[in-house]
Amino acid sequence: MPQLPDIADDLSDIMSDLQGIGGGLSDAQIVQQTVPPEVWKGASAHAYTQELETLKNKVSTLSGKAYACAQDLQPFRDKLSGIRHKNYLAK
User: Does the pLDDT value for residue 10 go beyond 80?
Assistant: First the structure.
């Protein structure tokens, strides 16, 4: 039976990249941004804050999804490594 390709390092790199993306998004200025009350008033403040909150939520959600994807790859990486190890020992 042919050996499965050794992609454990590639998966680790992808997981690391996804964690970096998640961290970068959670540290993005838009997520940290607040509306200075002395600058925005009335309808413009309401419109701005609604748009800002919508964008913040989307960026935060995307950040969480990037972290989740990285975590979801870990069991696959572990299982693949275990299968490769068993196949190697069986030879």
Answer: yes
**Cα separation, 73 vs 63, whole angstroms:** 16
Q: Torsions phi, psi of 41, nearest 5? A: -140, 155
Higher-pLDDT residue of 15, 8: 15
Alpha helices in the chain (DSSP H): 8-26, 29-32, 42-90
From residue 55, give the alpha-carbon distance in Å to each of 15, 24, 81. Answer: 25, 15, 39
Task: Specify burial of residue 22 (Cβ count, 10 A radius: 0-12, 13-18, 19+).
Answer: buried
At residue 51, does pLDDT exceed 80? yes
Rounded to a whole number of angstroms, the CA Rg of the chain reads 22
Question: Across all residues in the chain, what is the average pLDDT?
Answer: 86
- Integer CA distances (angstroms), 4 to 15, 24, 85, 88, in order: 20, 33, 10, 10
